[in-house]
Amino acid sequence: MSKFALLSGLLTVLASPSLTQGLVQLPNTYPNLTACLNQPSFFSCENTTVIENSCCSPTPGGLVLSTQFWDTYTGLEAQEQFLPKNSWTLHGLWPDNCDGSFNQYCDFSRQYDPAPSPAVLPNGTVIPPYNGTSVATFIAEFGRFDLLNFMNKYWINQGAPNDVFWAHEFSKHATCTSTFDDACYGPDYKQHQDLVDFYDAAIRAYKQYPTYDMLATFGIIPSNKTTYKLSQFQNALKSQTGAIPYLGCGNNGTVLEEVWYFQHVLGTEQFGHYKTLDSVTNSTCSSTEDIRYYERTPTSERDARLLP
Ligand SMILES: *[C@@H]1O[C@H](CO)[C@@H](O)[C@H](O)[C@H]1NC(C)=O
Ligand SMILES: *[C@@H]1O[C@H](CO)[C@@H](O)[C@H](O)[C@H]1NC(C)=O
Ligand SMILES: *[C@@H]1O[C@H](CO)[C@@H](O)[C@H](O)[C@H]1NC(C)=O
Ligand SMILES: *[C@@H]1O[C@H](CO)[C@@H](O)[C@H](O)[C@H]1NC(C)=O
Ligand SMILES: *[C@@H]1O[C@H](CO)[C@@H](O)[C@H](O)[C@H]1NC(C)=O
Ligand SMILES: *[C@@H]1O[C@H](CO)[C@@H](O)[C@H](O)[C@H]1NC(C)=O
Ligand SMILES: *[C@@H]1O[C@H](CO)[C@@H](O)[C@H](O)[C@H]1NC(C)=O
């Protein structure tokens, strides 16, 4: 059966709710962690014994960054690519090494980024641009329309379609995260299982940090009139997460644009317990100047919570 026939058959079945139960068996995407049971449990980058099975804990990328953007427009509003009202958007889940350095594009056999950035690795190797099927198709092939729906609402690109951004995040970062290695899924590994699993994991980490709401709780809301100080953002977020995240600013440190939450994880990135840590990267926001946390262009956002 062709992929299209499979998909349209699935959609037909899903359209009749009474038949859905029982007839549709969606494939699982989780790894096989059986072998981790006889490994010690520890937070990544805090192990006192050598990690024997890199499927059980991310290594060497055990300093895990959950990152978000505050954009005011997408540039693709005409194609109905909008920002979610009252929410920062998901950027990614990155495997920094314990010292804050990082690896990128670690597996060219899982390279789905059409415009690799950087185009060339530090050692001079050119990263081959991808021109194949969209990663959105791979997610649909697993029947994960719920996942695609969430990604289309909260994992938003600027200046290019969302699926290109999702492909970039997987290829640049997940391929360097040991708990998403193909081998971790066992002999029955299904192609792109790791990709779906990574997107689920990135969203789970993102949901730990509702940045918009955390700031709003302290009266810090986007405004084109009021300005804030860096310490106001930091104090608010630290009071809820226990640590100071990295805050990124543009316009010479005066316009708030992004946040990176630093973490160690006990167990896997997929299912393990995260501990939030202070940023090891200095903020690019000015520590003295007034900082803008801009309101969005009204026509660039929509209330994702009201949508199906
Ligand atoms: C998981 O892997 C173990 C070997 O580590 C194997 O014995 C077991 O059958 C696998 N489980 C599944 C569900 O594939
Ligand atoms: C933790 O595990 C990593 C990866 O196996 C290893 O390089 C490192 O030496 C271990 N740390 C300690 C303190 O043993
Ligand atoms: C450059 O680094 C990549 C990824 O670590 C590696 O696969 C490749 O062999 C390296 N190339 C050279 C020329 O060292
Ligand atoms: C896509 O990439 C493949 C392999 O790199 C190449 O052979 C092919 O010409 C490319 N197609 C287009 C349309 O660029
Ligand atoms: C950027 O900010 C620094 C420190 O506030 C200031 O010294 C510098 O003049 C600014 N540069 C520009 C181009 O505004
Ligand atoms: C961060 O800022 C501190 C204090 O300004 C400075 O001592 C340190 O070198 C900076 N670290 C980096 C990585 O730039
Ligand atoms: C607020 O200012 C930003 C930056 O100039 C602009 O993009 C946005 O449209 C403005 N929003 C409102 C509601 O005026």
From TrEMBL:
Q: Which InterPro entries match?
A: Ribonuclease_T2_eukaryotic, RNase_T2-like, RNase_T2-like_sf, RNase_T2_His_AS_1, RNase_T2_His_AS_2
Cellular compartments per GO CC: extracellular region
Determine the domain of life of the protein's source: Eukaryota
What Pfam families would the database entry show? Ribonuclease_T2
The record's Gene Ontology biological-process terms are: RNA catabolic process
Picking any one GO molecular function of the record gives:
ribonuclease T2 activity
Spell out the coiled coil positions from the record.
none
PANTHER family from the entry?
Answer: RIBONUCLEASE T2
Under which name does UniProt file this protein? ribonuclease T2
Q: Which organism is it from?
A: Phanerochaete carnosa (strain HHB-10118-sp)
